[in-house]
């Protein structure tokens, strides 16, 4: 059905050795939406990805992929044909070239081998297509991994820690490809520990702890929910820091960092009022730098909150 979510998890539980790796987890991901799964080691991210892929079956709950029941006896075979997966560790035969490797996976997935050149081009491996995989760099191997996940033109792509071990330039190139896929309507789920890069590259975040989903939404949704204080750094003309400090409204944390710099800590809802007040009353102000809570700050906040509650 056109309006079905791409992925729907309802009260899903998966237990290993009497421990819940995924615990009563519900999540809905729309078609073309992308979600970054975050969580400490062992939080259940890979298990969740494998459940969505149908590589494991839940002990309790329902999973629907593109509107099809994934947990029935038929295991949503049609829906699974539209899933692509880049595992955390993917092994290739070192003696095969990139083109031979992709052709091998294409035959397994019943995808036309004639389309492999296009996919290698898409992931930036066209020039190295005939080089042996044993001579590929880590980044090239990851691109080849992504290429095999793209076979079958997946409508849902699952990427398990796809940028681990890549240098910053390759990470950016990887996210550019992911962004193009999202823009063409592919639902992308990726798990990662790299919070700083995710902040720049992902639209929706889902944070897991001990198998449970403890927060989800866009980074702005998470900021609103966490309501963490905002930090503002004020730079004044030389020697004017003390004069500026006297004009800071009550109830705002104010710390002098030198004779021309102040750090303010304030509730986010007061940010605009305080900035207006400062621009009207502090002529010696030279510069203002606002630091909103980062994804790292939010991640730590929700992890701590879930321990307390
Ligand atoms: N096949 C398995 N047999 C037994 N226990 C398992 C199995 N797979 C996962 N687990 C356990 O389930 C829990 C969740 O593991 P999972 O690999 O899903 O976490 P993760 O969030 O992906 O961790 P990481 O970030 O380290 O990759 C862990 O306690 C793990 O030991």
From TrEMBL:
Pfam families, per database record: ABC_tran (PF00005)
ABC transporter domain ranges (all copies): 7-235
SUPFAM superfamilies named in the record: P-loop containing nucleoside triphosphate hydrolases
Keywords of this entry: ATP-binding, Nucleotide-binding, Transport
Origin: domain of life: Bacteria
Record-linked InterPro entries: AAA+_ATPase (IPR003593), ABC_transporter-like_ATP-bd (IPR003439), ABC_transporter-like_CS (IPR017871), ABC_Transporter_VariousFunc (IPR051782), P-loop_NTPase (IPR027417)
Name of the protein in question: ABC transporter domain-containing protein
């Amino acid at each position: 059905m056109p309006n079905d979510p791409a992925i729907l998890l309802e009260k899903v539980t998966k237990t290993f050795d009497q421990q819940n790796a995924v615990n009563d987890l519900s999540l809905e991901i729309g078609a073309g939406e992308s979600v970054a799964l975050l969580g400490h080691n062992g939080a259940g991210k890979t298990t969740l990805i494998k459940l969505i892929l149908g590589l494991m079956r839940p002990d309790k709950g329902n999973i629907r992929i593109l509107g099809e029941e994934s947990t029935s006896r038929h295991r949503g075979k049609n829906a699974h044909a539209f899933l692509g997966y880049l595992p955390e560790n993917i092994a290739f035969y070192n003696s095969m070239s990139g083109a031979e490797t992709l052709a091998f996976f294409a035959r397994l997935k019943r995808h036309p081998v004639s389309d492999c050149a296009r996919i290698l081009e898409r992931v930036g491996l066209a020039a190295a297509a005939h080089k042996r995989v044993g001579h590929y760099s880590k980044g090239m191997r990851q691109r080849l991994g992504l290429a095999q996940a793209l076979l079958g033109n997946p409508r849902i792509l699952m990427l398990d820690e796809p940028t681990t071990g890549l240098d910053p330039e390759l990470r950016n190139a990887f996210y550019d490809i992911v962004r193009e896929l999202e823009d063409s309507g592919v639902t992308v789920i990726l798990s990662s520990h790299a919070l700083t890069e995710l902040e720049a590259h992902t639209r929706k975040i889902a944070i897991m702890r001990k198998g449970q989903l403890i927060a989800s939404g866009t980074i702005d949704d998470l900021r609103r929910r966490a309501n963490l204080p905002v930090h503002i750094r004020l730079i004044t003309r030389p020697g004017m820091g003390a004069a500026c400090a006297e004009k800071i409204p009550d109830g705002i944390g104010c710390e002098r960092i030198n004779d021309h710099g102040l750090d303010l800590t304030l509730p986010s809802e007061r940010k605009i009022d305080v900035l207006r007040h400062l621009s009207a009353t502090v002529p010696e102000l030279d510069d203002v730098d606002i630091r909103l809570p980062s994804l790292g700050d939010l991640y730590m906040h929700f992890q701590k909150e879930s321990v307390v509650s």
